[in-house]
Amino acid sequence: MPHESKPEFAPPVKAWTPVISPSGMTFYNGTMFQGWKGSALIGGLSSKALIRVTLDGDKVVDEERLEMGKRIRDVIEAPDGAVLLLTDGNNGELLRLTPAGK
Questions:
Q1: What is the pLDDT, as a whole number, of residue 9?
Q2: Angle at 14 between CA 11 and CA 16, to 5 degrees
Q3: Residues 94, 84: contact at Cβ < 8 Å?
Q4: Is residue 1 part of a domain?
Q5: pLDDT per residue over 39-96, tens digit each?
Q6: Which of 35, 37, 52, 92 is buried most, with the most CB atoms less than 10 Å from its CB?
Q7: Which pLDDT belongs to residue 80?
Q8: Order of strands, edge to edge, in the sheet holding 94-97?
Q9: Is residue 16 part of a domain?
Q10: Is the dihedral of CA 7, 9, 14, 17 positive or negative?
Q11: Number of domains in the chain
Q12: In this structure, which long-range contacts are made by residues 84-88, counting pairs with CB atoms below 8 Å and at least 24 apart in sequence?
């Protein structure tokens, strides 16, 4: 299907309104978070959230927005499966996410 305004481009697989202002992204491959394996984890600047997107091939089948209250600049997976988030700004923080009780 062609893009509405630029027929030479394919339309996005997923778009957000209001925008999330996506930043860093990683695909989760760990086992620390049950049910997250293969999910795209996307940092949100204006949304101040971590957005988890579940894909089936090239289709988005589920989305979860985890409110962080801070602009998320980058997302990586730690070697132990925790999720590390870098917040935006001069006094940016490194946040380590683990499931409750871990």
A1: 85
A2: 115
A3: yes
A4: no
A5: 999 999 999 999 999 999 889 999 999 999 999 999 999 999 999 999 998 989 999 9
A6: 52
A7: 97
A8: 72-77, 83-87, 94-97
A9: no
A10: negative
A11: 1
A12: 85/43, 85/50, 86/24, 86/43, 88/23, 88/45
